[in-house]
Amino acid sequence: MEYLPNFKTHRPSTAAEAVKFFAESDEPRYLAGGTDLVVNVRRGIETPQTMIDLTGVEEMTGISDAGGGLRIGGATVLREIAESPIVRERYAAVAEAAGEVAGPTHRDYGTLGGNLFLDTRCLYYNQSEWWRASNDYCLKKAGEVCHVAPSGKRCFAAFSGDVAPALLVHEAEVELAGPGGTRRVPLQDIYRNDGLDHLATQPGELLVAVYLPASTAGIPSTYVKSRVRGSIDFPLAGVAVRLQRDGADVSDLVVALTAVNPYPHFVKGMDAHVGKPLDDEALDAIRDTVRTQAKPMQTTTVAPWYRRRVVGALARRLVSKLYEAQG
Amino acid sequence: MSKSMLSLTVNGRTRDDVVPDNMLLVDYLREVVGATGTKVGCDGGECGACTVIVDGKARHACLTLAVSCNGKAVETVESLERNGRMSALQRAFNEKLGAQCGFCTPGMIMASEALLRHTPNPNDDDIRRELAANICRCTGYVKIIESVHAAVAETSAKEAAE
Ligand SMILES: Cc1cc2nc3c(=O)[nH]c(=O)nc-3n(C[C@H](O)[C@H](O)[C@H](O)COP(=O)(O)OP(=O)(O)OC[C@H]3O[C@@H](n4cnc5c(N)ncnc54)[C@H](O)[C@@H]3O)c2cc1C
Ligand code: SF4
Ligand code: FES
Ligand code: FES
């Protein structure tokens, strides 16, 4: 008990009330499942004075049809998304990615919002207070240097959520509620390529829901990750692919990555493969393009060169699999 | 220190307690309720020793605030016995050597209990998948899988006899 700061907890029942509590509280944090935040609080990485517990906000849970697309509440638990027949049918990669997060118990109460707002991760950061203290902390929290790239002033901690790349390839938008009102933006816009500060949202903005558009419903997609233990671990590299084939040609190809940069992002240059058949040369080119855009650093126990190799290989494999399956 | 009123059921009994807002469910269960069956094995979410059932679903008591359980039903390993007799799962873990040192066992049993409630007849893959968040340093897992199967067999034999 003494290892947790002495915070106060609020349990709002609407999103508007949650936003209001946030604006009026001292050092507040939104708390959903707590599978990331409570770990970080217990390790002294986060020191909130107020917790705003979202588990009582009903409007933020559940999956519903939205004009041929879907609305998924921001506090919907990952198991519900992974097992939802309609998500599996329309946005396969999203269900697959949700089913690959952590272990089954985490998916029973870990939420989509928590997954998208996950803190970035690093070997030198996700450690206990005494571990970090004995290492003079680091740039991301309480320290002066980055142990991964000591000469610079940048943090390379990797965004390691599984679901974001799957939502990116299906062109998801997020509804954010904040002190200034509600807005809807493409998912990519809430991230920036900076391990210290990877969220481009305003302080206090709450992810109320994710919207998946009808335009990408049913286009074949898939997600895969590499990890140390197949049962439970964060991704070392994760790839989502959306691919539509028309005869011998690829008519639509979108690839997004996670865990190899401080933010999840689209792979640029995939359009070059649209309108053509997919041969081995094209697959090798896709693999190499992915490798150049993945910039993993020594933020995991596994070497960066391996993560770069594996992310390219996974992308090549998924693109080939989706193409062949529609042959 | 901020405190809140917590009204919930623990193992079927209604309780009202005033608890600190920053108290973890596992500390509430062990120190306030006195139900020490639930264990703590890691510094958060890695091992599954603290697994309990909240409103029918498995949950880590070490990552859950006690006050988040207001109005909910919490079940721990202590809830399984009936009049001093172990449940089929408990007996199977004991007899099939699914428990050695026993530290992971309350969490393993509660995760298995959650599994059997939504998948009453699991195959090996179901068991492996649904117990993947629970770590055991002793058994090598094979005996744990056998224990879950044995519990299912005992329960269905009993149902057939009735
Ligand atoms: C052992 C272990 C393994 C894990 N493995 C993986 C893995 O493989 N892949 C993976 O992706 N994750 C993994 N996780 C992390 C985590 O379980 C999931 O990412 C989960 O989805 C987080 O959701 P949560 O509801 O628990 O978030 P919380 O911990 O409650 O919140 C996380 C962050 O998001 C913010 N937040 C939560 N909800 C909202 C909202 N609606 N609006 C705005 N901000 C919000 C919180 O303030 C906090 O900063 C793992 C965790 C553990 C302990
Ligand atoms: S990348 Fe550097 S600054 Fe960022 S968490 Fe790791 S050690 Fe700290
Ligand atoms: S004590 Fe809760 S998961 Fe280890
Ligand atoms: S029996 Fe010892 S940890 Fe599982």
Structure in words:
The complex is a heterodimer of chains A (327) and B (162). Chain A has 327 residues and is an alpha+beta fold. Chain A is 29% helix and 20% strand. Chain A is built from 11 helices and 12 strands. Chain A has helices at residues 15-24, 37-42, 78-83, 85-90, 92-98, 104-109, 112-116, 129-134, 163-169, 280-293, 304-325, and strands spanning 8-10, 28-31, 50-53, 63-66, 69-73, 173-178, 181-186, 206-212, 221-226, 237-246, 249-258, 265-266. In chain A, the strands form 3 sheets. Chain A has a 5-stranded antiparallel sheet. In chain A, strands 9-10-11-12 form a 4-stranded antiparallel sheet, with helices on both faces. In chain A, strands 1-3-2 form a 3-stranded parallel sheet, covered by helices on one side. The longest helix of chain A is centred in the C-terminal third of the chain and has 22 residues, at 304-325. The model of chain A has no long low-confidence stretch (mean pLDDT 97). Chain B folds into 2 domains: 3-79, Beta-grasp domain (Ubiquitin-like (UB roll), Roll), CATH 3.10.20; 88-161, [2Fe-2S]-binding domain (DNA polymerase, domain 1, Orthogonal Bundle). Chain B has helices at 25-33, 88-95, 105-118, 124-130, 142-161, and strands at 3-10, 13-20, 51-54, 57-60, 73-75. In chain B, strand 1 and strand 2 (13-20) form a beta hairpin. The mean pLDDT of chain B is 96. At the A-B interface, helix 2 and helix 6 of A face strand 4 of B. The structure holds flavin-adenine dinucleotide (FAD), iron/sulfur cluster and FE2/S2 (inorganic) cluster (2 copies). Iron/sulfur cluster (SF4) is lined by residues 122, 124-125, 138-140, 146-148, 155-157, 195, 299 of chain A.
